[in-house]
Amino acid sequence: MTEAAHPIVRCSDDELLEHTRWMQTDMKPEVVEGYLRGHLPRLRDSLAAVPPAQSGRERLLDLGCYGVVIPWYVDLLGYRDITGVALEPRETLNENTKKVKGETDIRLNYSYFNVEEAIWPFEDESFDVVLCLELLEHMACDPMHLMEQLNRVMRTGGLLVLTTPNAASWASLARTIVGGQPYNFSVYLGVDGLVNRHNREYVPGEVKKVLEAGGMAVERLGTFGEARLSTSLKLMARLAGLAAGVTGRCPASLRGQVILATGRKAGPVRDRWPRWLYIDPKILGEGIAERGEKGRRRLAEWK
Questions:
Q1: What rounded mean pLDDT belongs to the chain?
Q2: Could you give the number of structural domains in the chain?
Q3: What one-character-per-residue DSSP string does 50-94 give?
Q4: Is residue 247 part of a domain?
Q5: Whole-angstrom Cα distance, residue 114 to residue 49?
Q6: The predicted structure's pLDDT at residue 126
Q7: Banded pLDDT at 229 (limits 50, 70, 90)
Q8: Domain range holding 110?
Q9: CA nearest 76: which of 130, 25, 12, 16?
Q10: DSSP 3-state assignment of 20?
Q11: Would residue 181 count as lying in a domain?
Q12: Is residue 23 part of a domain?
């Protein structure tokens, strides 16, 4: 299937919004529509990488899920068994959702837990497709725990679709050139929680390494989206980017706003503690062992 033929790409904005009407959450309808209209381009480009279900028996896991987009998985992509892990505990689905839809063969499971600390409450090798959209950048202390658990619950050969803001985008480059900081979302919300500011943003090569360390065979690595920049900033960013592109490490095709990577589970986690991503625990001294089982595990497994 070409991207242009993808069911979500074919829909207009209004058609996509209409498909969300039967999903009832605790979010006010006007808030839902405002959020979706502001994020439709990103969501459309992200979900165009998700193949439609072939048998209807495939199980889909959406990490950091906004419940309002579940109708797209059902109506447009044909998934009937969907598990969503919410971004925060206050977001819930209305118990009457299935009745509103009028179908009884749709399995919707929705819960909340901390994906970088908890042992996920799912059986090994139980999902065919896993979505990790705009979540990796929110991990505060242990992103490879996310990848370790993700690997465990994915079936061998299962598909991972991951998106995250690009710290090497034209916009990030332009902000740095004029003395700003490169992050796309660096402001504090003033409250604690997973949906606070981005804790770490990645460049495309790092995302590839995260997937490979997590036991994935990377099939696609690209970027999409472009921020609105003044002509002068755009020119400066392009010139700087072209100069860097001579090295071949970050060509223009990897300068979009959002990184999109897909991979298939090829085997177990290859590197639980990548040295480029984690500090050597020995530098932290004996105090890390006092942090409980996880701290002791870090010391024991560090290679």
A1: 84
A2: 1
A3: SPPPSSS--EEEEEEE-GGGHHIIIIIT---EEEEEESSTT--B-
A4: no
A5: 26
A6: 97
A7: low
A8: 3-159+186-227+258-301
A9: 16
A10: coil
A11: no
A12: yes
